[in-house]
Amino acid sequence: MTDATASATAKGRVLVVGATGFIGQFVTEASLNSGHPTYILVRPSSATANPSKTKIIKTFQAKGAIVLHGVINENELMEKLLKEHEIETVISAVGGEKILDQLSLIHAINAVGTIKVKCSFWSLNFIHLHIFDP
């Protein structure tokens, strides 16, 4: 095994949630370019209902991304996907009306217990400041 092969094998599996959104596209591209096995979570309806998202998904697949179908607020499904695919890093670029769905994702991550890195571009401070403050 060459040093390059060993380096690529040693890179952890990354799941990007919100990969077809504005920020998510950049995050997914960076993960793929850095050689991480990259998984993207796609809502079942996104793959067929929106032609521009379908194009983004196909572009990522052509670059090596692995598509997982589901929604982040389905706790049991998320736990299953995280375990089954041995995901080590979860990056959420989810925003807008889906922002609170990240709470279910966080519960699934904690339940699995093997995720080394958790990152959200819509931090809990944002949730606190804009949703919970009187």
UniProtKB/TrEMBL annotation:
Secretion signal, residue range per the UniProt entry: none
Domain NmrA-like: 11-116
InterPro entries linked to this entry: NAD(P)-bd_dom_sf, NmrA-like, NmrA-type/Isoflavone_red_sf
SUPFAM superfamilies noted in UniProt: NAD(P)-binding Rossmann-fold domains
Pfam families on file: NmrA
Annotated protein name in UniProt: NmrA-like domain-containing protein
Biological source species: Rubroshorea leprosula
